[in-house]
Design goal:
Keywords: Membrane, Transmembrane, Transmembrane helix. It contains two helices and no strands. The protein is an all-alpha fold. The chain starts with a helix and ends with a helix. The mean pLDDT is about 80.
Length: about 60
């Protein structure tokens, strides 16, 4: 496990904290849960999409050499 893998995991975990922070911004409970959940999942998926593309691109170049 490299430092990059650890940082990628921490960024994905930050999606949970972002979700909790956004849900606190709304007065009604259900709207906070819905908007917070959507934003947290969107952040985590975005990090995964860009992070895993970089991980696999590095792995492919190492195999080619």
């Amino acid at each position: 496990m490299t430092v990059g893998d650890i940082l990628l995991g921490l960024l994905i975990a930050c999606g949970f904290f972002l979700s909790a922070a956004v849900s606190r911004m709304f007065r009604r409970r259900m709207s906070g849960i819905v908007f917070g959940g959507v934003i947290g999942i969107a952040f985590s998926v975005t990090v995964l999409i860009y992070g895993l593309n970089n991980v696999f691109a590095i792995a492919e170049t190492e195999l080619a050499n």
